[in-house]
Structures are given as structure tokens and as C-alpha cells.
Design brief:
Largest sheet: 8 strands, parallel
Number of domains: 1
Oligomer: single chain
Low-confidence stretches: 1-13
Strand content: 5-15%
Order of helices and strands: EHEHEHEHEHEHEHEHH
Shape: globular
Helix content: 25-40%
Number of strands: 8
CATH topology: TIM Barrel
Mean pLDDT: 94
Length: 291
């Protein structure tokens, strides 16, 4: 068995002032596999590190975490290989079938790649009871043994089962992707707000400030549309458990990279430099144990 990864250095990282995008995707477009892009013509092409590198540089971003976008082990290998030749990819959140009987062998196999920091399943596409399934939770427990983190990708209406899920893993690093996708387009906030506040009571749960542009009306939004939702997550999680992320290239269907980063910078302009450094990089470094 390979040596288990030590990701427990979460409290040992000092303020670095590095800017980290905690959520980007890469893919070579495949029409059959990527059917979820059917209404997103802009995304129906290859998006690889060479396309993103100049955008990161132009926006003062030092590095990123590449997150899985398809549910196959080949995806994990693909992201690992990209990280080998693109040093600005500091971490990978991969995919492995957590419900399979041989999950421990598969996780042990992937533990040879230190760039893999965590794992994700696209739960937003699953039935509401998915997070509570015995086989799935058994797989997540294997991840916990190896000190991996887990990204929770859900819609706002799945916050209740997600709350039960996080309660089952109080000692594991968990992060809510895209603020659990609130319905910004229809300005619905009340039920989402209650769920976010409850889930944030678990101190091991973090939240990514990502993916919100595409939850608003595409390219018809204004910065003020997001402020009530940002108020909720900042109050609930505080600046110690929020991570800046772009959700590039999905963000492009509704806006530009610079628009989202600038919007968050404007929102946080009255925060201390230390708090801004946490949200824009240091929390990601601690959470994902980035070098």
C-alpha cells in the first residue's frame, strides 16, 4: 500500500499573498460525453491550460486548482498529466467511482500522485437521496482515511441532504462548490439562506465563491444581483472558510473572468488586507494543502 497523504497541515500555512483560483476546468470537447453543454455553444470546444494561462496572468492569479468535469477515471489521469506540464496547476480534484467495491484499491492507486488533493462527484445530477447512500458514504470514508478533501457539488434544493451528509463526516475537509447554486436569476434566497447558515455551522465545511455568474441571468446581471448572496455566505462562513474560484471556462457563458474577480474585489474592498488574502488564496492553500 502506498503511503497515505498528509493533508492535515491546514493550520500551518502562513499568509502568502498568493492568489489562487480554486475552481477551473479543462477538457477536450466530446459531443457525446459533454452533452451537458448542449445549451452552451461557447463551451463546445477544447479548453486547455494554454488558453487559461494568459487570463490568469492578466488577472494577477498565480495558480489554480483543476476540478473534474466528467465522471471517469480517465479524467483524473488527464488532469494529472496537465499538471505535470503546467506548473500553475497546483492541485487536482479528481473523480473515482466511490460506489465501487474496489474503491480503496483505486484510491490507493491514485495516492501515488501528490498533485491530487481531493475528489468530486457531480451530485447535482443525482437523486436527492444520493449523498446518503451507503455505498457512496463508504467510498467517502475511504477518502477520509487518505486525508483527501471532498467537493460537494449540489443545487440549492439539495442542501438538506447535504446537511445530513456533512454531519456524517465531522472530521473531513469538505467544501461546497458554487455556494450551492442559489437561484439568483429569479432572486430566490430565503430557503437557500437557511440551508447555507445551517451547513456553515459545521466548522470543517468551506464554501467556494465560484459559479454564481451562471446562476444569474446570463449576461443580463448587475453586480448588485450578487451582493445579497455574498452577504449570506460571508456572514455564515466568515473569511476563514471562503475560497475564490472562477469556474472557468463555464463562467464565459455569462461573463468574463475579470468581471467576477473584480466584483469580488469590489465587494471586499472594506475588508482587511489579511481577510482579502485569505479569500483570494490562503484558504485554498490551506484547504487543498497546496505547495
Amino acid at each position: 500500500m502506498n503511503k497515505k497523504i498528509d493533508n492535515n497541515a491546514i493550520d500551518e500555512v502562513e499568509i502568502s499573498n498568493r492568489v489562487i483560483d480554486a475552481h477551473v476546468h479543462f477538457w477536450q470537447y466530446n459531443k457525446q460525453r459533454d452533452s451537458w453543454m448542449e445549451e452552451m455553444k461557447l463551451l463546445q470546444k477544447d479548453y486547455l491550460p494554454g488558453t487559461l494561462s494568459s487570463t490568469l496572468k492578466n488577472n494577477g492569479v498565480d495558480a489554480c486548482v483543476a476540478v473534474q468535469a466528467s465522471q471517469e477515471e480517465l479524467e483524473t489521469h488527464f488532469l494529472v498529466e496537465l499538471a505535470k506540464t503546467n506548473p500553475f496547476i497546483n492541485g487536482v480534484v479528481g473523480w473515482v467511482d466511490l460506489q465501487k467495491e474496489d474503491i480503496e484499491q483505486r484510491v490507493d492507486y491514485f495516492s501515488q500522485y501528490p498533485v491530487i488533493k481531493g475528489w468530486r462527484h457531480i451530485v447535482q445530477a443525482e437523486p436527492d437521496d444520493f449523498l446518503g447512500r451507503t455505498n457512496f458514504q463508504r467510498g467517502v470514508k475511504i477518502l477520509q482515511r487518505y486525508n483527501y478533501s471532498y467537493d460537494i457539488l449540489i443545487y440549492h434544493q439539495q442542501l438538506k441532504p447535504a446537511l445530513e451528509f456533512v454531519a456524517a463526516f465531522p472530521d473531513m475537509k469538505l467544501v461546497i462548490d458554487h455556494c450551492a447554486k442559489p437561484d439568483i436569476a429569479h432572486k430566490k434566497i430565503d430557503d437557500w439562506k437557511i440551508g447555507i447558515k445551517e451547513i456553515a455551522k459545521h466548522p470543517n465545511v468551506y464554501c467556494k465563491l465560484s459559479g454564481l455568474l451562471t446562476e444569474a441571468k446570463w449576461k443580463e446581471w448587475s453586480p448588485a444581483d450578487f451582493y445579497p448572496y455574498l452577504d449570506v455566505v460571508f456572514e455564515a462562513f466568515g473569511t476563514d472558510r471562503l475560497l475564490f474560484g472562477s469556474d472557468w471556462p463555464v463562467i464565459l457563458v455569462s461573463g468574463m473572468y475579470i468581471q467576477w474577480k473584480s466584483l469580488l474585489e469590489k465587494y471586499m474592498e472594506r475588508f482587511t488586507p489579511e481577510d482579502r488574502a485569505k479569500v483570494f488564496g490562503d484558504n485554498a492553500i490551506r484547504f487543498y494543502n497546496l505547495k
